[in-house]
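Sharing a chain and its predicted structure for anyone who wants a worked example. Both blocks are below, sequence first, tokens second.
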Amino acid sequence: MIAVATPSQEDYLEVICRLVQEKGYARVRDIAEALQISLPSVSKMIRRLNQDGLLEVERYRGLTLTAKGLEQGGLLVQRHRIVERFLRNLGVTDEAAVWRDVEGMEHFVGPATLARLNALNAFIEANPSWWRRYLDTASVPDAGRAD
């Protein structure tokens, strides 16, 4: 279960986790760039996440996640990937639409629903001809179009 309190905190922790996975650390500037927000806003949230025991700040070296932060961040990254896979399996091809929809949906998908989405993704990927048949017959407007 993810214990981070707000969608904003989840976004920060997810980005930090991705950066740490990629580079071994995260910097305030990298986080601000990824989230497209100001450095002071990132610094404020970093203090809060640090107080909550989710990350450690090493002055002039960047941020790293605590065991608790790594666990929660990993769950957030996994949740993001499951929802993204689902949208792509639905045939959504517009990158901006995928990003917008994942960001809108991921914070409100409960654990049971997420498990079912993950199972559906696996079924779709194991049965591509069945899924293609469904997509071909579904009465759906262009899934690649950003709404």
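Comments welcome. The first strand starts at residue 55 and ends at 58.
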